[in-house]
Amino acid sequence: xxxxxxxxxxxxxxxxxxxxxxxRARLHQAxxxxxxxxxxxxxxxxxxxxxxxxxxxxxxxxxxxxALTHGCVADGVALVTHVITRELPPPPVNFINMSSNMAGFYxxxxxxxxxxxxxxxxxxxxxxxxxxxxxxxxxxRPQGLIGAVEECAWPLAEHRRRLDLPADxxxxxxxxxxxxxxxxxxxxxxVQWVRRYDNEGVARAALARERWPAGGQLAVSSNLxxxxxxxxxxTGLAPLVDPDDVxxxxxxxxxxxxxxxxxxxxxxxxxxxxxYGCYAVYVTR
Amino acid sequence: xxxxxxxxxxxxxxxxxGRGLPAHARALAAGQAHPGRSPLRFAxxxxxxxxxxxxxxxxxxxxxxxxxxAVGDALTEARLPPEAIARLGIxxxxxxxxxxxxxxxxxTQHARGSMPLVAAPRYGYLARNxxxxxxxxxxxxxxxxxxxxxxxxxxYARAMLAEGRIEHALVxxxxxxxxxxxxxxxxxxLLTREGYRPFDRARDGLILGEGVGALVxxxxxxxxxxxxxxxxxACDASSPTNSQPGHIAGVMREALDDAGLAPSQLVAIKAHxxxxxxxxxxxxxxxxxxxGDAPPPLTSVKPYTGHTLGACGAIExxxxxxxxxxxFLPPTPxxxxxxxxxxxxxxxxxxxxxxxxxxxxxxxxxxNNTSLVLRHGQ
Lengths: 285, 378
Description:
The complex is a heterodimer of chains A (285) and B (378).
Chain A lengths: L3 E12 L8 H7 L9 H14 L10 E4 L5 H13 L6 H6 L3 H11 L5 E5 L4 H9 L8 E8 L5 H7 L7 E12 L7 E9 L2 H9 L8 E4 L7 H8 L2 E2 L6 E2 L3 H11 L5 E8 L2 E8 L1
Parallel strand pairs in A: 2-3, 2-4, 5-9, 7-8, 7-10
Antiparallel strand pairs in A: 1-5, 1-6, 4-5, 6-11, 10-11
Helix pairs in contact in A: 1-2, 2-5
Chain B lengths: L5 E10 L2 E2 L1 H10 L5 E7 L2 E5 L9 H20 L3 H5 L2 E5 L5 H13 L13 H10 L5 E4 L5 H14 L5 E8 L3 H9 L23 E8 L8 E9 L9 H15 L6 E5 L6 H15 L6 E2 L2 H4 L6 H14 L2 E2 L21 E2 L3 E9 L3 E9 L2
Parallel strand pairs in B: 5-6, 5-7, 10-11, 10-14
Antiparallel strand pairs in B: 1-2, 1-8, 1-9, 3-4, 7-8, 9-15, 12-13, 14-15
């Protein structure tokens, strides 16, 4: 794939607490006239995208790829409950906003862009998939916005049960964004490649053959955490240890965007294992 | 993208019209729509709905069975060797994704009097389920862009094929019955009271439907095989629900450019044709902007199957291919009089058509507009 030059990045993560932190005030700080009648997923998307671009206006045909794992979970839960238990139609605005591509729509409207606008999922690999799609036809489209947004549904105790998580597990919401600009003279970082392997063994063999820069870092998905030392030994990269154990539906995006915001070495290799193989993403400063 | 035909090697289709492309060609040739009734009422009246013509037990299980049938039929027709099936890229497009399963599960528990928990949506669930059922180990992508979802799935499948990242792609548009979608469209006042009439001056809304369309695309295939030869998508950020004619026209032109065709070279337009006053007005005016006074024959297949939301991309492409194979374009049931605001006439009877290129439009909430160009028999 064509390497993606990253001109801007934002890693926005909010640790969830009871009651939920209202986002409206933050939104007013981030943009002059935030849209009304939007849901929390849209608010999160707008906050992260504005933090990433920080006033930069993308070209009008800039495409947007929004990675999702659970998508619009809060409205989804509320509206299913409403329709089944009360046997009433959903409020029209809530129903329209439940379509996850509305988050990308409002970001596009705020930025004045009208390129391809995709809400995208890929089981455990939605951010990797968004990077893959964003790299298609790069010679024709110099810019691109790639986001990863997840929200919680309250009450959190119920949401933990919904996600099959322990009762004491900390939860987070997120809005991570990358702005790709192939014309950037001094990009913050470059996503050199995204590769998929049939299984962990194949990934291990392939990544062991690569030469990695000294001082580089390695991150793994949460289900590989027990084996991070082994992966580190295999590649010679230093393990990136998470300071906390907060659940996120977008770990890959969190790690990559945070690395680009505050790099701790010359490169980051992120390895994730999921239901249909392994993905590796390689980012250099 | 350089000119690239993504060859359609196989198709599978399950809707209210039946299972398989021949059944759909027969139903579309008859030119009549036969919507069913849902168990729901709104504002004192029953809500029509096109249920898939398959045995129906548990709504969630029925939905997965529709997918299994459509995908199985598409793979059978494509005749790929097992190793090629194992490496297929899966591209799912859906609006509700696993909502039929979530809603059915919740409703069952609620009816039993328990205190149920609404499950978390898993946007990748359908693709994962297809992969497990058919032993497919390739990459998976799920597109959730409202009514253009599976059209976008096809667009990106073609792009991945064009760059040689995959050899074959399985594109699946899937939409199951949910109370939430039906009541949601009712609350938006978008459901018809008088009958489905796309582009007619008296049109007043749509009827929803469920169904699954599956296509196997390849980088190469028989010379006469139908192909997806052009595509474009863009977001009209001016309104979340109504796109501007100029924006839609731009997407249609871009798709034609991608296919290397002039508007005059098309043999037909498969319109999005939802039958709502606003959407048909925008699409009709956009067609006028691109084709002027001489648009090619135009039709909408939504009256036959119902509007299948995110699945309509795959389903309607396959409906048109089914008719094309039999040498005709289907009429638009319900159309009688043109709307003076754009003056387009939809087909009112079958029209002979065996070869050529066709523009297929798909528009969704969130300003998501996508056009595909199909070629058949050339």
